[in-house]
Structure formats: structure tokens, C-alpha cells
Design goal:
single chain; 71 residues; mainly alpha; 82% helix
């Protein structure tokens, strides 16, 4: 497996766990719409992907500037 696949699987698992936790954290009498749970899980998933690829982009930029000699 490539590192991307590992991150993708872990992000998906984290989104599922977050959605499940949000659902269980709701008070017993409250009804949480499935759309709200799905939106929250998707937002967490996309945030995780954005953070990962943002770090990768910053590393690539730092490597570029080291090679060019301006860093």
C-alpha cells in the first residue's frame, strides 16, 4: 500500500468514528438527522485530507527551495 492509501483509509475510519461519536453524544431524547451526521463526517474527512496534502505541498516547496539554493 502506498502512503496515500493508508492516509485515505485512516481518514475514512476517522470520519466514521467521528460521525458515530457525534451520534452517540447526542442526548437520548434528541433526534440527529442523518444528513447532519453525514455532513459532519464528510467535513472531518475533507479537513483531514486538506491537512495532509497541505503538509505535503509545504514539504515539496521547502525541498524545491533547498535545491534552488534560496532556502
Amino acid at each position: 500500500m502506498r502512503p496515500f492509501h493508508i492516509v485515505l483509509v485512516l481518514s475514512t475510519a476517522a470520519a466514521a468514528v467521528t460521525a458515530y461519536g457525534a451520534r452517540r453524544a447526542a442526548t437520548a431524547g434528541a433526534h440527529v438527522p442523518p444528513e447532519a451526521v453525514a455532513l459532519h463526517g464528510a467535513a472531518q474527512f475533507y479537513r483531514s485530507l486538506a491537512e495532509y496534502f497541505g503538509r505535503q505541498a509545504l514539504r515539496a516547496e521547502a525541498s524545491y527551495w533547498k535545491v534552488v539554493g534560496h532556502g
